[in-house]
Amino acid sequence: MTDETPPPDRPDAARTDGGVGSPQRTAEVLSESALEASYPEYRDQVRHSEHLEERDGDTVPAEAVLRPELAARLEYDLFTHQAEGLDHLADGNNVVATTSTSSGKTWIYALQMARNHLDDPDATALCLFPMKALARDQEEALTTKLRHDWDLDPFIGTYDGDTRSERKQRIRREANVVLTNPAGLNVYLPRHNRDRGWHRFYSNLELVVIDEGHEYSGVTGTHVAFILRRLRRVLEHYDADPQYVMTTATIGNPAEHATRLTGADYAVVDEDGSPRGARDIVLWEPPLDESAIDADAADPMADFEQARRSTGAESASVVAHLATNDVQTLQFCSARQGTEIAAKQIVQAAGDHPSDRYVTTDPYHAGLGKTERRAVETKLKEGAVDAVPTTNALELGIDIGSVDATVTSSYPGTKQSFWQQVGRAGRGTSDALSVMVGGVDAMDSYIFENPGYLFADDEVEDAVVSVDNDRVFADHLLAAASERPLRAEDVEFLGDEARFREMVGMWQAAGLLEETASLDAGGVTYTGPRRPQDRISMYGTGGTEFTVVCRDGDIDHDPVARERAYRDYHEGALFLHAGQQYEVVEVDEEGHHPTITVAETDTREYTQTASTKEIRDLTVRDHTPLSGAYDRYYGEGTVRIRYDNYLVRDVFSGEVVRGPLPTGAPPMDLRTELMWVALPPGHLGATVDRLDGDLLQPTDRSERDGAVPQEEERYTYGGGIHAAEHGIIQLAPLELMIDNADIGGLSTLSHPHGTIQGPVWFVHDGIDGGIGFSKAIYEHFDTLAERTREHIADCECGRRRGCPMCVMSEHCGNNNDPLDTLTGSMILEDVLDAMDGE
Amino acid sequence: MTVRPTLPPEDAEPTRLLALPGTAVESHHRDTVVAMLEAVAPDLVVATPPRAGTVGAAVPRQVGTPVLAPERGRLPDAVPTKGGTVLVATIPTTARGLDAAEVRGRGQRERRGEPDGTPHEEHRVCLTARVTLDVDPYAREASIDGLDGYADQLPDGWLTGDTTHCSTGLRAGYRTTTRADGEPVSLVGIGRTEASLGVGATDDGPEPTLVEVYPNGAVGTGTVDPGAFGLRGVPGIGEKRARTLRRAGFSTPRDVADAPPRELADLSGLGRSSATGLRAAAEARAHGTAVATGDDSLPRGDPIFVDIETDGREPSCAWLIGVLDGGAEDGHYMPFMESEPGDTGHLESFLHWLDANAGGRPLVAWYGYQFDFPVLRDLIQQHYPDHVERWDDRYQFDLLWWARDKNGGNVALPGRSNTLEPVAEGLGWEPETTGIDGGVVARVYTAYRRAWLSADEPHSVEAPDWDRLAAYCEDDVRALATIYEACEAAARRDPGTTRDTDSGTQGALSDFT
Ligand SMILES: [Zn+2]
Ligand SMILES: [Zn+2]
Predict the structure, then answer these.
(1) Optimal mutation site among A239, A482, A503, A527, interface B, most CBs of chain B within 10 A
(2) Calpha distance B364→A317 (Å, rounded)
(3) pLDDT number for residue A678
(4) CB-count exposure of residue A554 (10 Å: 0-12, 13-18, 19+)
(5) Is residue A420 over pLDDT 90?
(6) What's the gap in Å between the CA of A472 and the closest CA on chain B?
(7) CB A629 within 8 A of CB A278
(8) pLDDT digits (tens, 9 = 90+) for A504-557
């Protein structure tokens, strides 16, 4: 959306450049012959290339949709999806628009604002953006459209932590359109009845815009869903009944997502009428030196990564190759690699390139000052820089112009991120080119094996958001009560009824809501310390949250929830952030402000944290019996995780340099959501019989690991179920927009719970209270299991013990041991058969 | 079943306990703590966590306040107060199956010599660490823990009956009435809780809390900020400045108020404008007067003083709108009171009264811009939208904002907090009603409303003592008028000369040039 200033998406600006000569396709630079000729040591890294044909736009005359007064002010026709959205709004519906990036979704709400303004000059609109910078960009874009192009006079203002207080006051008093972010709304909402300006604004609210709605999933999504429910409740008090417009990247479940986020119903606009330029997409796989793989490596995962050219270095070579061929390139780096390092690698790679051309490069990231950022943007526009490595955090929002080509350094985790990055390429008369350099991950591997996944319109991830987390609900309930006393009818926004009443009762008994009051008789007031909203953190579910500070200077690091802190930020842990290595030197959980203190370091080491897990207190919430004695369950339970010790390993050899060393982290109990697959009691024996003696030998490491069975049959079967568990978690993001670093698993040959008669594997949310991830996996289990089975069986590694591209995981607490892809495939096959028979 | 809160008997003398956390003692200068103890003058201090062990040493002998430490010792400890009519006793966690005479005896033996056969006390306050709150958002339950074990420790009949139970395992200010054996048990928090209160808890450590226990079981609680006493009680003097001043021999607000201005400015590196402000504030504090510090004038026209009573700090109604037309002493007080829960006729009457009487006159409220005015506006918008425009046009004046904030402040006022009654009391005003505050009033009303709205026969529901509640509101508007008049008087005086008359030095403002 934001890359529509300047508007590339108008019909007349459509890329119908065919007539003027025949420009060279940018992709020629990566043709087999060009690479053979000039790419240093080309080893057939191009695994797939796809040419996407240009597509014309479908338009509707503006007069067909808009009143003449407004239509006359438009210079162009409307795309069909814009017209459809506006028609729905005219009919009184809410709209979720899920057409492609830069298809002009903004126009739907901008024109609705114009219509509302013409009907009533006092009408107001509230727009929520996931990032501050995005709100500012849109303030400019909306001002241009509404005030300049369409000659209307609404007052449009961005209202957030960066807005000066005099400006804020003016916006409250006068603004027709307020742009902010959900975290801002969370803290501004309680002022609704203490300020005449807000009072006016909410009373006249006709439109609520939720831009980039797919950004709100996981923990943040849960908070946003409650903030929006609180907003709706306050609006009801003002008799305001605004319409909602949500824009999202292409997701599989737009209506469901929009409804979960807001509690309202939506009409879906997903038929894209915008034109599209032609583009080439190339999948590029870093070369692997198979002879370097050591079957008995101390750390099999690190060993594999050593044998493969690093994704970052390989990306730099590709960028250098493009840049030396006059193809201006934007490289999207991973957070670990960092843009500064990438810039150095590009210069180095250009030096190694036979063309011997000097390549200019400037890194671009959020840490840069405004002036520095503008300078890079200008250089990009003027062609004064050949290559710009940027963080993928900047893939959305900020307008950094377009380039000839993009290079994506490992799959960004979602299709929408990928396409957003790709969308940056393409300008002038040459075609756009985008390269994805594969990372060491099961998802990357799956996509390289099945490139169709990227291009198929019907394979889109579902956005996952949940309002089931009771701890988050409890916090927002206090916030809501402090905004207006709670009443029985609030169940409309804060339902379900039983949960609402029980939670109100809990807070009354705890003295934070008035104990003598009643929901049914006069309402329940808030009696706790002022402004509970201010203490809501969008990063966690209400547990301890650590601030990361650097002993030697600044570090721009998001707060870390306890769940991740214990695993990745215990004392002595090493981690990479923006290309810099850090060591955790102190963890202080005692004070009022829990802090993780880190120091910059530069070692050839990394750390690996071992964990043990117990799962207790299971409560079944849903059950899908399969045929045979196979069962799938979804429910809640307590996961006790101990991150007791860690190993320090050498980056190159994977050998243990020190350790195991104690982490000092106490055991952690997560009360969370889980799904589990229970297998029949005799499944181990039956599977081992089919293996016919082809069993794995326990490793030396596993002998020291009390959690691993040493008996060969059990060891091998354990490896299979462990592989199935890993595989499903690792590929889940292909189906669901979830961060698999926030999912955990446990596979075991037996478990005392009554639902479990034989072996079992669990998938659990790694966040206290749950954020809907396991539930989504439970609901999408068929597709996930099928895809995982296929992928495990087909992995190029062909190794029983697997590789990082199939079943190994960097988050494994057992050093990826045991893993058995063969048994894992058999187990998945049996489960899939049992599902067919269900 | 919720127990409706009781009001204390009129003119009753409460037993006053100051729950004092060790950390609060540690983070303030000894002089500040002593000044607090002298000003608050509790009957006794209860040492509470965190670091309860450090409290005893911080209460100097000359202050003479007994200290009880419920988390310490193996045997109960007791202090009889109010001429022996109230017994305050600790019930240490280790004590078992106590006998009433034994507990009473502890108090007698240790402090009053041998038991003398005095009759039993009328009311008891028992202090424990055992009773705690557990909150489980996943089970959606909050429960009181430890009550059974505690009950086993207590002498027979002490759990219910005429006893109030205070626990350091409950957060200060928390109050609930639970039931044991069908009888109500009144629990009061005086410490801190380990319960997960989510965003309902702040990061701040516990504050000293004054608990007032009345013989009929009514309880009032309020936090006490040590930083409001002694030198620290002068707005503008933080711990750092206080240290500088103490080193130079200034140990009370009076010392600062009486200091030659130049000396003050030089001394603390304040610069003259802050020294002037500081001195005015110290003077207000030390002498219980209002001291002009700015140039803004009060509104023209005879003020109308307004104060509302609601169902909470984030209210849904203003069931009582108290109006004072005229001066603090002789003004006419009009309570516009709801006729029954949910009715808003009184609001309309108030608006009509304004139409008839308020033309051109300022409506004055304390903290009004943050509370009374927007709350009233919200209600007018909801119920009488035709009046909104006229309401918006009225001259609404927040006296606290004018005195403290407008253009850097216009009048320095005494009082150990910025709330209405302490400020007026600092000026020498005395309330007619006692034992009630805004929170209690809101609770009493809310409980009544609930009973009324849920009852089949609403009119059979026992009503609160409306006259007393209206009298409380009258106190507030008269306190407000008192402050207003003091501000007027201060503004009439030449700011430069007031200081001189008090300090006996020459020049004041010109001294700094
Ligand atoms: Zn593999
Ligand atoms: Zn694992």
Answers:
(1) A527
(2) 73
(3) 96
(4) exposed
(5) no
(6) 9
(7) no
(8) 999 999 999 999 999 999 999 999 999 999 999 888 877 778 999 999 888 878
Across the interface, do B311 and A485 touch by the CB < 8 Å criterion? yes
Whole-complex ipTM? 0.92
Q: Which residue has the tokens 């698993």?
A: A745
Q: Is A685 on the interface with B (CB under 8 A)?
A: no
- A103 in Cβ contact with A81 (< 8 Å): yes
A509–B142 CB contact, under 8 Å? yes
Domains in chain B: ranges and CATH? 15-226 (3.60.21), 230-293 (1.10.150.20), 304-491 (3.30.420.10)
> How far is B489 from chain A, CA to nearest CA, in Å?
31
Q: What is the CATH number of domain A24-50+276-284+309-439?
A: 3.40.50.300
Q: Decide if A24-50+276-284+309-439 and A59-269 have a common fold.
A: yes
Q: Which ligand is located closest to the Cα atom of residue A726?
A: 2
Coil/strand/helix, residue A191: helix
Q: Domain A59-269: give its CATH code.
A: 3.40.50.300
B189 to chain A: which residues are within 8 Å by CB?
511
Separation between Cα atoms, residue B301 and residue B311, nearest integer Å: 32
Confidence of residue B113 (pLDDT cuts 50, 70, 90): very low
Residue A18 scores a pLDDT above 50: no
> Taking chain A, what is the end-to-end CA distance rounded to the nearest angstrom?
44
Q: What token pair was written down for A810?
A: 């960097």
Among A473, A483, A525, the strongest candidate for a mutation testing the B interface, having the largest count of B CBs within 10 A, is: A525
Contacts of A203 in chain B (CB under 8 A): 381
What percent of chain B clears pLDDT 70, i.e. is strictly above it? 92
pLDDT tens, residue by residue, B139-169: 999 999 999 999 999 998 898 878 999 999 9
Is A483 part of the contact surface with chain B (CB cutoff 8 Å)?
yes
Q: So where are chain A's domains? A: 24-50+276-284+309-439, 59-269, 470-535, 545-603, 610-836
- Shortest distance, CA B9 to any CA of chain A (angstroms): 21
Token pair of B292, please? 């002009």
A533·B199 Cβ contact <8 A: yes
Distance, CA of A643 to chain centre = 26
